[in-house]
């Protein structure tokens, strides 16, 4: 009982260094940094950790800032360079423009060509408005612009106005002419019942495909096309299936989508029926069958009577 019990380890002697602190995190990322001597670009955390930009926009901004001056950064060039689609790259460029990391404008060169000028900023809060290309050639620039100032901090005198920057000429991008859509089919002999049934078919589409809900004026505009389908002996269920089958997601313009399907999927007239799409003088005339009053043989004639063999007038003539 008189022997002391040693429970805690003895204290370290004064002045002896303790164990080094463990700086390795127990979880998360571990950085292994090597100092670059060439081929690098400096990116601020305001861009690398931006909470309002998408990952594609951040990566695209880093790529653009790493390029040399004069490099091509058009949408076609970026689409060929990266696996992302043209729509995603365009959206990323719009994000960078909205946050001030990028500025694009259309300018006219002295030779008359219109090009897109892209300016990339590594600090949007200090970004200055881009200077457009002057209309005069560099050798024809004013001499005052070629004389360096005495000091970068010297401002022009108050009575001497500073030269106004050249205005940026914005020219809309050229667009190819659009091909007009084909005309909507029109029924050859529209009736009140045909028009009413066609309007009911269009109004009933929203029961089976809610994304095809259209306005009342659109129903009135598309009714002649559905009436043409009905005129060609197409059942309303068949029409509904043709218009609602395999719909895109989403249907951005339901009325234009229905007009396209009504026009391009119009079935031909059934064989053996009167072609209602041809002019009246070219329609097929069918002569009905008649039974001979004498021998009861069937023959074609517009009026009932005797067949050719039983007609006495033909025998007398022969």
Give an account of the 3D structure.
The structure is a single chain. The protein is mainly alpha-helical. Helix content is 31%, strand content 6%. The chain has eleven helices and four strands. A two-stranded antiparallel ribbon has the order 1-2. A two-stranded antiparallel ribbon has the order 3-4. The chain is elongated and about 130 Å long. Mean pLDDT is 77; it is low at 131-147, 149-154 and 275-283.
Can you describe this structure in just a few lines?
The protein has helices at 45-48, 55-66, 75-81, 86-99, 143-146, 192-203, 205-208, 216-231, 236-244, 254-264, 312-317; strands spanning 102-108, 114-120, 289-291, 298-300. The chain is mostly helical. The chain has a two-stranded antiparallel sheet with strand order 1-2. Strands 3-4 form a two-stranded antiparallel ribbon.
Tell how many strands the DSSP assignment holds.
Answer: 4
First and last CA, distance = 159 Å
Strand content: 5-15%
- The count of helical stretches stands at 11
Please name the defining characteristics of this protein.
two-stranded antiparallel sheet; 11 helices; mainly alpha; two-stranded antiparallel ribbon; 6% strand; Arc Repressor Mutant, subunit A; 4 strands; 318 residues
């Amino acid at each position: 009982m008189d022997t002391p019990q040693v429970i805690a380890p003895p204290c370290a002697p004064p002045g002896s260094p303790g164990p080094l602190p463990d700086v390795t995190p127990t979880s998360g990322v571990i950085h292994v940094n090597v100092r670059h001597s060439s081929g690098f670009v400096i990116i601020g955390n305001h861009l690398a950790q931006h909470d309002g930009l998408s990952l594609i926009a951040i990566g695209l901004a880093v790529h653009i800032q790493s390029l040399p001056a004069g490099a091509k950064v058009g949408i076609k060039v970026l689409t060929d360079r990266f696996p992302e689609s043209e729509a995603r790259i365009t959206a990323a460029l719009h994000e960078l423009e909205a946050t001030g990391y990028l500025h694009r404008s259309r300018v006219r060169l002295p030779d008359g060509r219109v090009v897109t000028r892209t300016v990339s900023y590594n600090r949007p809060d200090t970004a200055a408005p881009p200077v457009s290309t002057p209309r005069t050639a560099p050798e024809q620039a004013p001499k005052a612009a070629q004389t360096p100032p005495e000091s970068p901090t010297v401002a022009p005198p108050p009575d001497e106005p500073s030269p106004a920057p050249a205005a940026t000429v914005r020219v809309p991008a050229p667009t190819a002419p659009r091909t007009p859509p084909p005309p909507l089919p029109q029924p050859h002999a529209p009736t009140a019942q045909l028009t009413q049934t066609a309007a009911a078919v269009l109004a009933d589409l929203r029961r089976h495909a809610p994304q095809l809900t259209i306005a009342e004026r659109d129903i009135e505009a598309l009714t002649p096309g559905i009436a043409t389908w009905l005129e060609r002996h197409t059942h309303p269920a068949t029409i509904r299936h043709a218009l609602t089958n395999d719909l895109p997601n989403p249907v951005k313009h339901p009325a234009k989508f229905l007009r396209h399907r009504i026009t391009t999927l119009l079935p031909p007239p059934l064989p053996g029926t009167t072609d209602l799409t041809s002019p009246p003088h070219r329609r097929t005339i069918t002569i009905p069958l008649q039974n001979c009053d004498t021998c009861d043989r069937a023959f074609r004639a517009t009026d009932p009577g005797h067949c050719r063999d039983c007609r006495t007038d033909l025998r007398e003539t022969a």
